[in-house]
């Protein structure tokens, strides 16, 4: 039986990330210091006392008390374990809903191909099954990352996001709030996900 926990101990979190094959600096607790203008939570999934999955969730506050969640290069887990993956996604959705998150964007390190200097390009078509699985869980994939700085985005969005963002935009335009720039770019990443 799985369980999820918010606010897992930093030492345990970092040790798991460091030892996992999907290790990435953007999922380390050190990245929280870099992104100090965001709120953040350390999310973990356990079976008994064993940590099986983690996610550093960056949280941005939007007008009207709403939030957006971003999980850079995560969550960290074995994506081939579909039962675990389903539990992680459902738990993140549940947590996002409890915090009034309008959407969750994440860009996991799922490698579809690799090009190394002086070597042939290596394809990993079996990883497309992971993308299909995530899409069946309600994620919308924005496509392959073509450049190093480009994220590999999957996004979940609440059922009433467009209505909420229209309300936020209306209030921003009406009262000329300084937060308007925060919502302006969000419309381009919107996808459907009812939670």
Quick structural summary:
By secondary structure, the protein is α+β, with helices and mostly antiparallel strands.
Question: Strands, helices and their partners?
Answer:
Blueprint: E1 2-6, H1 10-19, H2 30-34, E2 39-47, E3 50-61, E4 67-72, H3 82-98, E5 101-107, E6 113-114, E7 122-123, H4 128-136, E8 140-141, E9 154-157, H5 161-175, H6 180-184
Parallel strand pairs: 4-5
Antiparallel strand pairs: 1-2, 2-3, 3-4, 5-9, 6-7, 8-9
Q: Can you describe this structure?
A:
The chain is α+β, with helices and mostly antiparallel strands and 195 residues long. Helices cover 31% and strands 25% of the residues. The strands form 2 sheets. Strands 1-2-3-4-5-9-8 form a 7-stranded mixed β-sheet, sandwiched between helices. Strands 6-7 form a two-stranded antiparallel sheet. The longest helix has 17 residues, at 82-98. The radius of gyration is 17 Å and the shape is globular. The two termini are 22 Å apart.
């Amino acid at each position: 039986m799985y369980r999820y926990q918010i606010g897992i101990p930093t030492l345990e979190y970092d040790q798991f990330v460091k030892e996992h094959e999907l290790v990435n600096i953007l999922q380390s607790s050190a990245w929280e210091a870099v992104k100090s203008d965001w709120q953040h939570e350390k999310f973990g999934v356990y079976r008994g006392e064993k940590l099986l999955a983690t996610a550093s969730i960056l949280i941005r506050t939007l007008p009207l008390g709403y939030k957006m969640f971003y999980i850079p290069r995560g969550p960290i887990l074995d994506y081939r374990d579909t039962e675990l993956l389903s539990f992680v996604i459902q738990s993140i959705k549940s947590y996002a809903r409890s915090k009034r998150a309008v959407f969750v964007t994440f860009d996991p390190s799922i490698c579809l191909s690799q090009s190394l200097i002086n070597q042939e390009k290596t394809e990993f078509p079996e990883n497309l099954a992971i993308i299909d699985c995530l899409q069946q869980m309600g994620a919308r994939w924005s496509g392959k990352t073509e450049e190093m700085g480009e994220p590999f985005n999957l996004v979940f969005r609440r059922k009433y996001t467009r209505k909420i963002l229209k309300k936020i935009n209306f209030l921003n335009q009406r009262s000329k709030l300084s937060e308007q720039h925060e919502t302006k770019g969000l419309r381009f990443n919107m996808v459907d996900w009812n939670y």
